[in-house]
Amino acid sequence: MIFQGYRRRLLLAALLASAIAPGAARAQERDGWTIDPSLYVFIPGITGTVGIGPIDVDLNGASTAIIHINFAAMGSVRVGYRGWALTTDAMYADLGATKGDSSGRIEEAIVEPTLSYAVWPWFEPLAGVRYQNVAGSIDGPFGHSRALSQGWFDPIVGLRLRFPLSDSVSLGFRGDVGGFGVGSKLTWQIFPYVDWRLAKILSLQAGYRALSVDYENGTGRDRVLYDVVELGLQFGVTFLFDL
Fold this sequence. Notes:
It contains one helix and twelve strands. Strand 7 and strand 8 form a beta hairpin. The protein has one helix at residues 2-29; strands spanning 33-52, 55-58, 66-81, 84-99, 102-117, 123-139, 145-164, 169-178, 186-199, 202-217, 224-239, 241-242. It is mostly beta strands. The longest helix is centred in the first third of the chain and has 28 residues, at 2-29. It has one domain (2-242): Porin (Beta Barrel), CATH 2.40.160. Strands 1-3-4-5-6-7-8-9-10-11 form a ten-stranded antiparallel barrel.
């Protein structure tokens, strides 16, 4: 009985080692300086409320606002050395929205630098800031029009997880939470995805991303409300370079 229990524990340890080994091997392959630029497409639906001055546009409910993307540009750069990595993600989107007698235009820019350290090949905590700038105009049902621009910084903490399924395919997760009243009341983000490494210097990602921001500032005609959740599919390509 003791021998059988020991054999079961030995088998469990072997299975865990085999699951982690591919990721550990790749981590050892990239011990020096690395730079990994990425381009991606985020196709979000938007729920929540956007307000400028006294005019609010409710994006919830059965009669959802019609959202269209006028222009978008998105990408990131990750610079690593051993377990450390500095990643800067940037996203710009020009959106239009119409609901009932109200219509509006929103320009959103996000720049997100984070510093992370891989404690284990599959576990990488991170910390940084998310700068967000929202510029918009809203036309109300009675011809009221108002345009404002607002930018703010949110401290964020989070993690990256990575679970290899094979030598070329892995499951990943990136999540964070922040704001804490410094800029936003609260902001959070989650992004589960699949990564497929096609070649030594190329990998593809596909997943589902959700980004929530609860921000309000100012009063009267200078009030800005941006309480939204953006969620949808994201597809990307990453180039991996060892320096």
